[in-house]
Amino acid sequence: MSEQRTRPVVYAVWLIIASVIGWFAAFQLTVEKFVLAANPDAVLSCNVSVMIQCGKNLESWQGEVFGFPNPILGIAGWMAPLFVGVALLAGSRFPRWFWLTFGAGVTFAFGLVCWLIWQSIYAPNLGVLCPWCMLTWSVTIPTFFATMLHLTRNGSFTSNEKVQERANRLMAWVPLATILAYAVVILLAQLRGLDLLGEVIGMIF
């Protein structure tokens, strides 16, 4: 199913929604980083409990893995899927090299998120979960799944029409795959002794 025969409206709308959510989370983390820089003893709004907080993450080396605060990557990076989503809704067509570059960027973001999840749960200096980070994770994971399938169905990964059609059908399973990914994160947290599910339920109710 080539991109020339159908406009990926659902995928485009999701990219826009994910970008807005991801950018907002990155912006909030950046604000909290500024607050900490101005006053190291400040009580951050994202410090919900001993286990759910962003203070430890922002002050750790993992929070500046590239030599600058990670949220800056989010503020800049989420502009790409926002642009792609809006352009797709406007009917734009992109060449294969563009899609492969975009896919590489999304894959990098997904890999970084997986690494940060592992660090947040298992690193000796952390053992906490950042609410704004979790919001970022929640949209990065399905964006990766959807993008990989979209690049398969639009011919960027393969010219095999059967594979493209299969990828198109699998798009309907992205929400389930995302829920299963969330479940894995919750399970890892539970096994580590972090009552993530209980904390999240407590935050909601």
Automatic annotation (TrEMBL):
Main location class: membrane
Record CDD domains: VKOR_5
Record SMART domains: VKc
The protein, known as: Vitamin K epoxide reductase family protein
Organism from which the protein derives: Microbacterium algeriense
Residues annotated as domain Vitamin K epoxide reductase: 8-151
InterPro entries from the UniProt entry: VKOR (IPR012932), VKOR_Actinobacteria (IPR041714), VKOR_sf (IPR038354)
Keywords: Disulfide bond, Membrane, Oxidoreductase, Quinone, Redox-active center, Transmembrane, Transmembrane helix
Spans traversing the lipid bilayer: 9-31, 72-90, 97-118, 124-149, 170-189
Localization per record: Membrane
Membrane topology listed for this record: Multi-pass membrane protein
Domain of life: Bacteria
Family: Belongs to the VKOR family.
